[in-house]
Structure formats: C-alpha cells, structure tokens
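Postdoc handover notes: sequence design on the structure in folder B. Input tokens:
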C-alpha cells in the first residue's frame, strides 16, 4: 500500500512538539531520561544503561533573556538558549531529564555546564582536544570508562559487555539507515529536499520508540526512492540547479532563514556536513565482539569532526570528499554569532572549496529574525552566481 509521504515527514518534523507528551509518558512509566548536548556523547553507553536519550540544545531566542541574567550577552545563542531553558524550566526535555551529560567541547559550553550542574545532576566527559595523538585515545578510553561507571552508579544497574555489544549493533543499524537519507541527495535531481532531510534528522531524536522510528524511516526512504524512479521526486529536472552542501553546527534555530530559503530560491541542499551530518552516520563502531566494547566506542567517537578539536584534519578531508561524492556546486557554512571554533574553521573550509573550484558562502547568524532580509539577499546572489556558471559551462 502506498503511504502518504507528507504525513510521514510531518511526523518527524513535529516530533519535537509531540515528543513532549512521549517524554512525560516515559517518566510516568518509571523510565529514566538522559539529556545530551553533543555528538561526542556515546549513544551506545546511554542505551546500554537503559536510559532514554534526548537532545537539549536550545534552538529558540525565547529563553535567552533569562540566560543573560547569569551568562554574558556575547556568548553563542545555543549555549544561552540551552541554559535559559533549564533555568526557567521552559523546555520539557530539560525538565524531565534525570541526568544531563556534557563534554568539555568549547569554552562557553564547558563553563555553562558548571552553572547547569547547580540545576541538574550532571556528568561531564573530558574530551581530548588533540585527537590525532595516540595518548588522546588512551585518555578518551579512560574517560568513557569513568562515564560508564558513573551511569552504573546513577541507575544502580551494571552495564555489561553484552548490553554494550547489543547497543553497538543497534546504533550501527540506525546509522546505516540514517546515512541513506543523505544518499538520496546524490540523485540528480535529488530524491529528497534538504528541508525534509533536516526535519528527519532533527525529529528522530524526539521519537523514543526506536523500533517504530526505524520502520517509519524505512518507509520514508523507500517511498522517496520509488517516487524518484517514477519521475515524481521533489525537484523537477534542471541541470543548472545549484547543488549545495550545508556545513556548520547549531542549525536548529536558524534553518528557516537559511536552509529553507536556499531551496525556496532554487537551490537544492544535497548533503549536510558537520557533526550530525553524513560523517557521524557513516562511521560505525566496530562490531568485533572479541575486542573491548568501550575501546571500540572510543575509537569511533574520537573521530567526531568538530571544530573544537585541533587540528581538525578529518573534517577537511570529509568536506573535500563530500563535495566530490555529492557533486556539489557550493558550500554554505552556517555559524552562530560568537562561535569562534566554527567561524575560524570556516577559513579552512574556504581553502578546501578553493581547491575544488567552488564558492563558499559564510553566514553568521543567531536565533532572532532581524537579519532575514540580508541573508535572503546574499543567498539569492550566491545561487545566481552558481547558476550562471553552470549555464555557461553547459551552453557556452
Ligand atoms: S558541533 Fe561539536 S560541540 Fe557541537 S554538538 Fe557537534 S560535536 Fe558537539
Ligand atoms: S555553536 Fe560553537 S560556541 Fe556554540 S556551543 Fe557549538 S561550538 Fe560552542
């Protein structure tokens, strides 16, 4: 039976709102919820501990005023919004979190966690800043063992090797499936819009029945492929349509004025680079059960290509590979105001783009609407430039 695609997408798109009830029901049934902020948090260990994970990154300007009563105004909006929600109890996910996990990523987050720890039970994982050093992996393994012990103490349940192995295999299965979303962007024209890709990526963290979520997503992906092959994909054929990769972090609160506008103005977002983009879905945890599962988990997560580590060579290699694989015509780097790691690293991405002969657009913004018009104008000019270049290459 054919499924109604918009309905399925909207289920993911609305998952954050609908998830409020789901998380309340989880709590009422005696389950424990673990709030997380970052891709460095090993989902496998949380799953093996029997906890339900939920993302707590703030995406709205609303709680920022409250946060600024304690935090400096010139701090990244994601950090302020996340803390503001916890301070004013305005986010049910933060409210219902029994424990919150943070990592020593950027300075702002690290220091904010000290204050957040006054409001919620917290575990902070110490992240090595120089991932390419061998001793960094040793330190990271030690940290993940301490994290595991901390969760055992919190739940009163042992996290056995069997539980970890099962969690590793399940999380890998989910990742392989999620990577298919981005594969749809490789089609020409793409078999999914970048807006829908994002809805799914964002929404999936608020659907707590993992098996149901897996099946729903499979239906969506199969349907997208079938529609494309039947000539009913979301984009009409257009050899000059700019194919764009979105790069950066903290897109949650800025997507409407960036991602959505890019497609509204005739571009196609073919892939997302960044910690929650294609790379995190492609890198799996080794399933070699003869080896220590914590070591295998550490090996994957030390490779998260985040701008907070240095040098971030993996990310640059990944940007270059993604441009080639997705046949991208441009990269748009989205960074939040006062986010030094990603803003500085945009220069390195610009160099990769230069080597590949494609233009980079850097948009620095926050969760407020004041710059919408200016961003729209810049996106329009950027897309026009790419389209003209493609037309000249095709038609002379
Ligand atoms: S961008 Fe870096 S700090 Fe932010 S969630 Fe991703 S991995 Fe964590
Ligand atoms: S967007 Fe930048 S400044 Fe904000 S939390 Fe992420 S890494 Fe830190």
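Designed sequence:
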């Amino acid at each position: 039976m054919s499924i109604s695609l918009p309905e399925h997408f909207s289920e993911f798109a609305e998952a954050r709102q609908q998830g409020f009830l789901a998380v309340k029901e989880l709590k009422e049934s005696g389950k424990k919820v673990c709030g997380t902020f970052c891709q460095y948090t090993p989902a496998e260990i949380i799953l093996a501990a029997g906890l339900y994970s939920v993302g707590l990154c703030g995406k709205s300007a609303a709680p920022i005023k409250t946060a600024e009563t304690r935090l400096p105004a010139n701090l990244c909006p994601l950090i302020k919004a996340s803390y503001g929600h916890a301070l004013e109890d305005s986010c049910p996910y933060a409210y219902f979190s029994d424990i919150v996990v943070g990592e020593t990523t950027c300075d702002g987050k690290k220091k904010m966690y000290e204050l957040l720890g006054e409001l919620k039970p917290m575990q902070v994982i110490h992240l090595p800043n120089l991932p390419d050093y061998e001793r960094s992996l040793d330190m990271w393994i030690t940290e993940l063992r301490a994290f595991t012990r901390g969760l055992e103490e919190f739940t009163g349940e042992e996290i056995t090797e069997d539980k970890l192995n099962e969690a590793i295999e399940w999380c890998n299965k989910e990742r392989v499936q999620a990577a298919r979303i981005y594969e749809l962007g490789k089609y020409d024209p793409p078999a999914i819009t970048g807006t829908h890709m994002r809805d799914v990526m964002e929404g999936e963290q608020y659907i707590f029945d993992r098996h149901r979520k897996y099946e729903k997503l499979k239906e969506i992906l199969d349907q997208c492929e079938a529609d494309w092959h039947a000539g009913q994909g979301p984009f009409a054929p257009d050899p000059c349509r700019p194919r764009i990769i979105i790069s950066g972090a903290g897109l949650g609160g800025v997507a409407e004025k960036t991602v959505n506008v890019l497609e509204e103005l005739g571009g196609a977002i073919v892939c997302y680079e960044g910690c929650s983009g294609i790379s995190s879905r492609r890198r799996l945890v080794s399933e070699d059960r003869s080896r220590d599962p914590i070591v295998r988990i550490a090996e994957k997560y030390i490779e998260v290509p985040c701008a907070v580590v240095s040098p971030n060579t993996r990310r640059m290699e990944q940007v270059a590979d993604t441009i080639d694989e997705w046949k991208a015509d441009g990269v748009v780097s989205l960074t939040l105001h006062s986010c030094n790691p990603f803003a500085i690293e945009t220069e390195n991405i610009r160099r990769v783009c230069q080597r590949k002969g494609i233009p980079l657009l850097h948009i620095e913004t926050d969760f407020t609407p004041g710059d919408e018009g200016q961003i729209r104008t810049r996106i329009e000019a950027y897309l026009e430039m790419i389209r003209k270049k493609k037309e000249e290459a095709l038609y002379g």
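Context for whoever picks this up: Strands lie at 33-36, 52-55, 99-103, 122-125, 243-248, 268-272, 330-336, 360-365. Don't rerun without checking with the PI first.
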